[in-house]
């Protein structure tokens, strides 16, 4: 396609993959900034909401204060400091309606593949109706991935899963059709999700739970609270107050970064607080197993949601023996004990180090092959990948901060993406691509920082395969993330960073 032919084409089409928080925020930005109408959001499920639609396990809630876990453009009258999954999902559905996004969203439509066509300067996209199985082909000049990294549940690699005769599911795909009352329930994993739902399901004394744990986690004192009617009236009627509260939470979380990740001395002090809290609240028989040997911050920091209190219940036991295999009647431990159970629940996190469908760039290479060649996910500013023109990611590699709101970092990335795609939407250029050299330089910089960080000192989801390259953590405060994503209109080296062509 020549540049003159390109000028006669209609407005370039933008496709957003995923209607979770990132995809909805991106759609809102396209409408607010550019009044764009020619965009589509493909969503594989029957409703928007992403992780807050999928995660419906008992006790599921945000671990970031809600005034800062919402869009800066749309503050909200939250009922409590940390919203439930129902309340958060309702918020995103409300925004989807408010900004008229539903006409742009194709629900039950899963992206099967996307391939760059160099002749037409667009992606050829194949989608599938998840209800009927029918496939559709379309094209888009810009593709924005908003699937995030916590998209595909990871099941533990344990032999014999197919042998189990009882019910089995992952906590990220909770099965409400299974009544746990009167059942023997085995929970595999003791991370953030498990510490939220285990207290809820063991509240019923008829549910007998045995939780299989591999390594302990640092638990901090609880921080959740219900907002009073007076406070909610003030934030509803005094918008400036709500804005100030948001800023206060941002600053508090930045201080948390410096306390846990930025200062060895402060981390030791906070570790002493966490250790004292665990010792004061956990059953004595579990104390030696519940105190981690790795430093605070290496794994996700967990604020207690009555988990330690639940450990005192007679219908909850912890098992640290390790799992040898799953057998027909339950679990075989590494010590040879067979533990029967009726229901097996995996709370084993997500597969965060691969891209879930074939997306092919300039040289016929898929993004997954690029990741594998680089020994893990890699991008420039967590947003753009060499060899993949007009393709951008929200919540891409090394953008999780471990301490602040992903909604904030999403907005920072979206603002950056809006600047980058502006000349494409204005039909001033056909395509742009990040170069290899600045991508390598940026990743050398962040991995130099990460190599000296607390993230190297344990097995965690931040790393490829739990022990490899750190691909899911940003090595600095949220303010630094904002500073590092430049204003493309003012950035003096953009001409060297990108190939602009027609």
Q: Can you characterise this structure?
A:
The chain has helices spanning 3-8, 21-34, 51-54, 85-98, 192-201, 229-237, 239-262, 264-281, 287-290, 307-310, 367-373, 406-425, 436-450, 478-484, 494-497; strands at residues 14-17, 39-42, 105-106, 109-117, 122-129, 135-140, 142-145, 167-170, 184-188, 208-212, 219-220, 302-303, 316-319, 323-327, 330-333, 338-340, 343-346, 359-360, 391-393, 431-434, 498-501. Strand 1, helix 2 and strand 2 form a beta-alpha-beta unit. The protein has 502 residues and is α/β, with parallel strands linked by helices. Helix 2 (21-34) packs across helix 12 and helix 6 (229-237) packs across helix 7 (239-262). Residues 1-7 and 488-502 have low confidence and may be disordered. The radius of gyration is 24 Å and the shape is globular.
How are the SSEs placed, and which strands pair?
Elements (H helix, E strand, L loop, with lengths): L2 H6 L5 E4 L3 H14 L4 E4 L8 H4 L30 H14 L6 E2 L2 E9 L4 E8 L5 E6 L1 E4 L21 E4 L13 E5 L3 H10 L6 E5 L6 E2 L8 H9 L1 H24 L1 H18 L5 H4 L11 E2 L3 H4 L5 E4 L3 E5 L2 E4 L4 E3 L2 E4 L12 E2 L6 H7 L17 E3 L12 H20 L5 E4 L1 H15 L27 H7 L9 H4 E4 L1
Parallel strand pairs: 1-2, 1-7, 2-3, 4-18, 7-19, 8-17, 9-10, 9-17, 10-13, 11-12
Antiparallel strand pairs: 4-5, 5-6, 14-15, 15-16, 20-21
Helix pairs in contact: 2-12, 6-7, 7-8
Which descriptors would you attach to this protein?
5-stranded parallel beta sheet; alpha/beta; 502 residues; 21 strands
């Amino acid at each position: 396609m020549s540049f003159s032919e390109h000028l006669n084409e209609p407005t370039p089409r933008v496709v957003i993959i995923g209607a979770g928080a990132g995809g909805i925020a991106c759609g809102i930005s396209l409408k607010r900034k550019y009044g764009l109408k020619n965009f589509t959001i493909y969503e594989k499920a029957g409703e928007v909401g992403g992780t807050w639609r999928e995660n419906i396990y008992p006790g599921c809630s945000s671990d970031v204060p809600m005034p800062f876990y919402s869009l800066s453009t749309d503050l909200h009258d939250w009922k409590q400091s940390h919203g439930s999954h129902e309340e958060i999902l309702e918020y995103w559905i409300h925004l989807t309606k408010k900004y008229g996004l539903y006409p742009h969203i194709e629900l039950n439509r899963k992206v099967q593949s996307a391939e760059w066509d160099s002749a037409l300067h667009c992606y050829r996209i194949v989608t599938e109706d998840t209800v009927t199985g029918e496939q559709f082909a379309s094209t888009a000049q810009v593709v924005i991935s908003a699937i995030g990294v916590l998209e595909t549940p990871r099941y533990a690699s344990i032999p014999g899963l197919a042998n189990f005769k009882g019910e089995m599911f992952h906590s990220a795909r909770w099965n409400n059709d299974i009544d746990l009352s009167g059942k023997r329930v085995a929970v595999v994993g003791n991370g953030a999700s498990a510490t939220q739902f285990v207290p809820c399901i063991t509240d019923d004394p008829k549910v007998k739970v045995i939780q299989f744990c591999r390594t302990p986690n640092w638990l901090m004192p609880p921080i959740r609270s219900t907002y009073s009617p007076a406070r909610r009236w003030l934030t509803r009627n005094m918008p400036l107050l709500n804005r100030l509260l948001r800023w206060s939470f941002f600053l508090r979380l930045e201080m948390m970064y410096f306390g846990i990740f930025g200062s060895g001395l402060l981390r030791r002090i906070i570790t002493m607080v966490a250790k004292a809290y665990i010792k004061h609240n956990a059953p004595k028989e579990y104390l030696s197993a519940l105190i981690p040997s790795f430093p605070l911050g290496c794994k996700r920091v967990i604020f207690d949601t009555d988990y330690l209190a639940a450990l005192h219940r007679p219908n909850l036991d912890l098992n640290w023996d390790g799992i040898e295999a799953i057998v027909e009647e339950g679990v075989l431990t590494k010590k040879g004990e067979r533990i029967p159970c009726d229901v097996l629940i995996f709370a084993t996190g997500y597969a965060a180090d691969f891209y879930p469908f074939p997306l092919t760039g300039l040289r016929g290479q898929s993004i997954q092959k690029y990741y594998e060649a680089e020994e893990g996910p890699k991008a420039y500013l967590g947003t753009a990948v060499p060899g993949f023109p007009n393709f951008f990611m929200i919540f891409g590699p090394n953008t999780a901060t471990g301490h602040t709101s992903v909604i904030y970092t999403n907005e920072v990335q979206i603002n950056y993406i809006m600047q980058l795609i502006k000349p494409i939407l204005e039909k001033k250029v056909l395509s742009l691509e990040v170069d290899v050299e600045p991508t390598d330089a940026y990743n050398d910089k962040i991995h130099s920082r990460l190599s000296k960080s607390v993230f190297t000192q344990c097995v965690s989801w931040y790393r490829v395969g739990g022990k490899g390259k750190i691909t899911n953590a940003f090595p600095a405060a949220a303010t630094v993330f904002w500073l590092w994503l430049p204003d493309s209109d003012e950035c003096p080296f953009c001409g060297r960073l990108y190939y602009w062509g027609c």
